[in-house]
Amino acid sequence: MVREPLENSAPAHLPVVATEGEINGHWVVRARGDLDSDTIDPLFLALWQAVAGYEVVVLDASGITFADSSFLSLLIEVHQRTELRIAAPGTALTRLLRVAGVDRVLRSYPTLDAALGAPPAAPWPPGGDG
Description:
Layout: E1 17-23, E2 26-35, H1 41-53, E3 56-67, H2 69-79, E4 83-87, H3 91-100, E5 107-109, H4 112-117
Parallel strand pairs: 2-3, 3-4, 4-5
Antiparallel strand pairs: 1-2
């Protein structure tokens, strides 16, 4: 398998979860670097802790340099438990979401500000109780 580097390559020694914190009542997790089965654990923990306390969790994806199926699986699991918003995915991450078909399910936004300012997602099914 050939790994195509994303446009924002970061040194491998940096932590995967850059920062976490509340902004406008939403929990924001900033991830960076390569996210695969060997490195996903810190992001997994950060997102699951956020799910326990917040209705909206925003993943700032602007620093992600690579992602694989373990990352996609994590996003889907988090999405099933809370409103997940993906902020500032780069071109290659956007392509990965599209190729995997999850771009129709997961909400992504061009910037962190756009993700933070978006109205709440409509309930599914429409008009139903979920």
